[in-house]
Amino acid sequence: MIEQEQVLDALRAVYDPEIPINVVDLGLIYGVEITADGDVTVRMTMTAPQCPMSGYLLQQAEQGVRTVAGVRNVKVDLVFDPPWEPSMIKEDALKSAGILTDTPANPVEGDCSTEK
What we know:
Helix content is 23%, strand content 16%. It has three helices and three strands; from the N terminus they run αββαβα. The protein is globular, with a radius of gyration of 18 Å. InterPro entries: Fe-S_Maturation_MIP18, FSCA_dom_sf, MIP18-like. Residues 5-76 form the MIP18 family-like domain.
């Protein structure tokens, strides 16, 4: 039997070309269903409904899932409910991409946000 974690691991190899974070950690995978026969359905969204890379990402996701041993058929459903938002990105992914650091930003002298 195929495990959900195997499918998610395969999807972690798929990166949004505009954001250096894989589709799982980016929060684009909304669900994975696996039948006993090896059919896999992935519910996936995009960062925006008009994403120019949606076709590419859907194709890459399907190809990635096909690499899992025992997978017979793959269906990737594109959904937009609930809408994706940046808070869905895993914090560890933001840190490893260099987008978020553990140290608070140092206020810049003269910056309006530091004035009292």
